[in-house]
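hey all, quick one before standup. I had two proteins in the batch that finished overnight and I want to keep them in one place so we stop losing track of which output belongs to which input. First protein below, input sequence then structure tokens straight from the run.
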Amino acid sequence: MKKLGFGLIGLIFVAGIYYFTSGSTQLTSEIKAQVDSELANMQTHGFSVQGREMGEEKEHFVISFDEPKKIAAFFTKNGAQLSASDAEVLKGLKIGVDLAYLPDAYSAASLDMYPMTLPTIISTSAQSDEDKKILAQVETMLEKKTFLIHVDVNKLGTGFKGYMKDIDEVFHGEADVKMLLSKLEFTGDIKDDKVQGMKQSLKAFSINVENEFTMAMNHLKSDYSMTGATQYDYTTSYSIENMSVQAEDALNMQFNNFELSSNSTVKDGLASGMIKTKTKNIVLAEKDNKLLLDGIVFEMKADNLDVKAFEQLGKIDVENEKEVNMVLQQLISQGVHFEIPTFSVENVENGGKKMGGFSLSSMFKIDKSLNIAATQNNPLAAVNALNAKIDFSLSKELFAELAKRPEAVMAMMLFQPKDVNGKKIYNIELKDGKLSVNGKQAM
């Protein structure tokens, strides 16, 4: 189901966005000419166009995913990362497109896009009677256009809006599986025939496996904007009001008021980026045990990543050790810097007992002198090319709780913390091949 969802929602939408943003103009004749041009272009990049029916105001056709390697290159070229292996999963997928020209005062064109057949790897994998029963149900849903996405492009060709049709379906099997999706809507901006920004909102999404498992997510929002010439120049943000995962006789989790922001920039072929998350609280419960984490903040930064090498990583054969090492060497060719400025929890509550919180910050630098191939045979050869620093602070109550665990006792005996303002402090540093803890050499 994961692969199916990826194909039906994520990549279908990306393909549709590229298709219609390139074809939007004010006059119907010009739109049709551009549609012809774009469909011809797609047929040189691994797709085929089938069953095209043309009218004065409407037309219908089917886009078939035929050649995975060409399709992967097509998506990557247009700003959507797709590996050859992921594209292979989509082989045989067919997307129906119903296109209307100048349908209303807002739109130059409107599109309905919906999967008509499953990828071959999925449609041919059903072996048991149970699998065949589920497959038949999915195929019925495809006939009903259950997974339909509607898009309107404005007459100036500068923006679009749309939605995914609500889903309320039950898969009948050994255990019934109910899927609900409500009010997935989006808007976006177009500039120079490319999507420059997009906002999305989702009221609710849930999957329930009868008497076994439930995953629910409510009030999701996202905002994405391109800020430069490459796909790695962007800012994005997400928020989720609450998300929960519940399983019978297992650990249950609930996240409340989750926020994420990130940005990335490219200069002289090197990428730098930042990601930051904030969560009001996380609740972990199992039978009679309940753990509450309040005020969680996590931030991470990375600098000097070689963009060409990063892109090459998604194309190479991971079994080819020599090629992998060569690309990794290029990736760190300018020296790489990772940093976690903040990872903190304001308070930990275990079984109703409040124990205070903790905070951690770290820095990790890889010098360009690091020889990737040499570390394969001798990992210690990397030590002199690495610099790292970790500052860790936790409450006395949390320290006492950790000290009860056998796996932590030995480390605490070897490395005693400092006491600063009622907190336990560890300062760990790796520099010039030497490791120290709270100023005392450990290696």
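OK second protein, same deal, sequence then tokens:
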Amino acid sequence: MGKYANHQDFGIKAPVKYREDTTSQSYLNGMSAIAPPGMKPRTVRGQRFEERTDPPASTRWHRNYDLAMFGGSEVLPPVRRETH
């Protein structure tokens, strides 16, 4: 059995400030902590991480996670906006 039994359990146990704490700087700090001596992560990777953890990208990820782990999701897919 995984860490979470269902979507509701996942939502209850998830840290409250998880989305707000997912910044490019937090990513770079974490990667720096595990990087080999003398190496550091690229700044662009931190920027991409932050882009992918902001809505609607995070909504898409959350929905896909629910589908894979629990076989369904209460999260609606993000709405695509047409650009002209």
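Flagging for whoever picks this up: The mean pLDDT is 80. The CA atoms of residues 62 and 68 lie 10 Å apart.
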